[in-house]
Design brief:
This protein is an alpha+beta fold and about 160 residues long.
Length: about 160
């Protein structure tokens, strides 16, 4: 069985009018060119959580689009800060911005229901929800999830 822990982030249009699609695409272009990119958010992320994936939820014309990426490292502080010495891995629009959370990501790819069906949010009361169902709720902007794929076989051939 394959398993990892991640954070789902709902992307919205920026206050300056940049669409959520352009936000994700500007990061994707750098990741394709340089191999990785730094993504920043004002959404607080816990330093105590072990996460190795990020799942971006982007509203599209025909429903939600899901993009996942591997997290190489995190840089998280209580107060917003500028990430120094990484300008070549940050889209120009976001260079010099102060954010609380910076995620160094790679391997960005679009995923479908087969991924989100296995991304489960577990609650302390023992209940659980599929991350896709949870992210449909308007007030939810992030969720920590565990992804388990029971179909991964132990042998290649």
């Amino acid at each position: 069985m394959e398993q990892h822990r991640g954070i789902a982030l709902k992307l919205v249009n920026s206050k300056s009018g940049i669409s959520n699609k352009e936000i994700i695409n500007s990061h994707y272009r750098i990741a394709q060119e340089k191999g990785s990119v730094w993504f920043s958010t004002a959404i607080p992320v816990s330093n105590n959580r072990q996460i190795d994936k990020v799942l971006f939820v982007v509203n599209g014309e025909n429903g939600e689009i899901y993009i996942t990426a591997d997290i190489l490292e995190t840089n998280i502080k209580n107060e917003p800060f500028v990430l120094d010495d990484c300008e070549d891995l940050i889209p120009k629009t976001y260079q010099g911005e102060k954010k609380r959370t910076w995620l160094h990501i790679t391997n960005m790819r679009k995923v479908g229901n087969e991924y989100t069906d296995n991304a489960i949010v577990y609650y302390s009361d023992g209940s659980e929800k599929n991350v896709r169902t949870l992210m449909h709720q308007p007030r939810i902007n992030r969720a920590y999830y565990t992804w388990k794929n029971e179909n991964v076989q132990g042998n290649l051939i």
